[in-house]
From TrEMBL, chains A, B:
Name by which UniProt lists this protein: Arginine biosynthesis bifunctional protein ArgJ
Molecular functions per Gene Ontology: L-glutamate N-acetyltransferase activity; L-glutamate N-acetyltransferase activity, acting on acetyl-L-ornithine as donor
Organism of origin: Blastopirellula marina
Keywords: Acyltransferase, Amino-acid biosynthesis, Arginine biosynthesis, Autocatalytic cleavage, Cytoplasm, Multifunctional enzyme, Transferase
Domain of life: Bacteria
Record site: Cleavage: A184, T185
Cellular component terms (Gene Ontology): cytoplasm
Entry keyword annotation includes Cytoplasm: yes
The keyword Secreted appears for this protein: no
Subunit structure of this chain's protein: Heterotetramer of two alpha and two beta chains.
Length: 397, 397
């Protein structure tokens, strides 16, 4: 088997001591062989961490040379010192590569409101440069280096043909909720050897985000650090993409981002189910998304799934308060393929069978069909368990 | 002490068997001595119960003669039969009073998707008419008759002077979350002997709802049955209200509705804290409300309070993703009077002292000040506990 790592990138991870556990990497570095196209999608939270401010100002770009991430400390709500520390981190990486600090992107995740332990990071950056490589093991170390409370690394890879050339796309992400003590954030980096312009990278990334990372919820809390980066080395020899070739790339990237995104609620804190919510027959996509999100965020829907309870009333009433106008008589609900509700009234169904199908499967499918049009939307959510509450209400000292 | 019951109303409650426990009233009846002014505020959920459809079509009015409520069954998602049952219930009350069914308002709360046990209700209605009276004990029986999983009756009373005349306002409400098995709904009835026109009743009720019943959250789930009714008998001899007199009445009604509304999250399922969220210095009221609601609905803020954790990062970041534009550097956070965050950075504070103040008090005050203007808003929320999740994830059979 050939390596799934796209040409043009080296990567590695290292433990420098931001995290207490010496077996857990807390630095992750991706180095580009040459100036590389990069684009980003960032948190919409008004309260943003230093690295988000830094990256936003430097993407899209065709001159990026590295992505440097630390985990264990979010460098958020850290004032001017936070900006200085972030710039120093980028500067150290840049110096080692002989490039400008503006060519280095940064990400941080972990506790909010504490200054970065710069001494440890300086030493760690020396070390991580010794550990770069192009094997899957290097990618895995880099993927572990962005984790916080994730149970394991979250990665996905795609190989496809674009313009007749083999193209690789590989991605890593992290996130399991906004969690005590303020361990925040969804981070993701996707690498490809396809050729894109900075504007294409920006557009295609924003586009696929709408049907992947923007369609997941654990607890509805958008963090101060959320960042998704796409780097395109162009080394696959596809030439510039346009028309059907660009669309083919977009579709592959969307699939990969959905694979990555779903891993987040599947690993949601205390989660015992991954809930997929399908909305069909809505008047338009915005409506479909709004209904899907409202159902996905409902604590009562989540707890019903936790308990294996085919509680259609909670799902139907959540759709009803989404703010979307629809004919309630045209609504039809199935859970794991079982029809529960149609035309304004409950349908007779065997509660035990449906309950058992929820209990027996990690994946739960909730499908709501409407009579308004042809728009669809899909959303993924974790359920809500006693463990989630325990984990998030335990005092951190 | 004189009775707190406004002149012009009789009331009572009775157990007819909709609820299993024979000690719990499940019928509640309020009868007006004469044609009475009434207005309502109803759920914004698109999926609405039969009594909501009925009352909406008949308010505001100056001809109302009774409010009839059953608890234990919401008569929601019950199709045409549900509408028929509701009309029959109103008709029985109307016949006994010798008035038209259109002069009787109805409310239902309880399980969704089951037809009303009409035989029991018919018999019960005969009985409840024997138990009407004007004492506080009658009011309490009526207040218990609208309860579902509430730990106790929720009532409030005000006596004041309007246009030089003593005026009474008294209210009852129920609600503790949208709970298994679909025990839904916030219901409230407020009675006064002040004199209002139907339009005044409608306007003043909608107005005070915005700062009371619309400012509370347990789990953010708006039910199919939510109803708030105001009945004004005019028996206090105030004459028609206008100008300062109307404003004085509005202020008294607002205070009473806030007293009632706060009792709902205070009795939220599994709740161990009533959280009051104060937003100050916002650009406008809508912004202030949006920030308040976002903080109030955050599972991470709720669980932090449950655990006595002065976790300012969760509160600050919730404000940040509310969708409201503000200067993050102008934000200041206090919890129970302790300053935790100012000018984009955490403030040094004694975590143990703040934690202890959260643990020692049922009421928690969260105040976020902004530098945008002078608008304020207040919101009340329950915390989120293991008991809430247990209660809502237990399978109902």
């Amino acid at each position: 088997m050939t390596s799934p790592i796209p040409a043009g990138f080296k990567m590695g991870g290292f433990h420098c001591g931001v995290k207490r556990n010496p077996n857990k990497e807390d630095l992750s570095l991706i180095v580009c062989d040459e100036d590389t196209v990069a684009a980003g999608v960032y948190t919409t939270n008004l309260v943003v961490a230093a690295p988000v401010v830094w990256d936003r100002a430097r993407t899209p770009s065709d001159k990026i040379r590295a992505v440097m991430t630390n985990s264990g400390n979010a460098n958020a709500c850290t004032g001017e010192q936070g900006d200085k520390d972030n710039a120093e981190m980028a500067g150290i990486v840049a110096d080692k590569l002989g490039v400008s600090a503006d060519q280095v992107l940064t990400m941080s995740t972990g506790i909010i409101g504490h200054h970065l332990p710069m001494e440890k990071i300086r030493t760690g950056l020396d070390e991580v440069f010794q550990r770069l490589g192009t094997d899957e093991s290097h990618f895995d170390a880099a993927a572990r280096g962005i984790m916080t409370t994730d149970k394991g690394k979250k990665v996905a890879a795609v190989e496809c043909k674009i313009n007749g050339r083999p193209v690789k796309i590989i991605g890593m992400c992290k996130g399991a909720g906004m969690i005590a003590p303020n361990m925040a954030t969804m981070l993701s980096v996707v690498l490809t050897d396809a050729q894109l312009t900075p504007e294409q990278a920006k557009t295609v990334l924003a586009d696929v985000t709408n049907t992947s990372f923007n369609c997941i919820t654990v607890d509805g809390h958008r963090s101060t650090n959320d960042t998704l980066l796409l780097l395109a080395s162009g080394k696959a020899g596809t030439g510039e993409l346009s028309g059907p070739a660009l669309e083919a790339f977009r579709a592959e990237l969307e699939q990969l981002c959905q694979d990555l995104a779903k891993q987040i609620p599947a690993d949601g804190e205390g989660s015992t189910h991954l809930i997929e919510i399908n909305i069909e027959g809505a008047a338009n996509r915005d409506d479909a998304k709004r209904i899907a999100k409202t159902v996905a965020d409902s604590a009562l829907v989540k707890t019903a799934i936790t308990g294996g309870d085919p509680n259609w009333g909670r799902i139907v009433s959540a759709a009803g308060y989404s703010g979307v106008q629809f004919d309630p008589m045209g609504m039809e609900l199935t859970v794991n393929g079982h029809l529960l509700y149609r035309e304004g009234t409950p349908v007779k169904f065997d509660e035990k069978t449906v309950s058992q199908s929820i209990k027996d499967n990690f994946d739960t499918n909730v499908t709501l069909k409407f009579n308004e049009g042809n728009a669809r939307f899909r959303y993924w959510s974790s359920d809500l368990t006693v463990e989630y509450v325990k984990f998030n209400s335990e005092y951190r000292t």
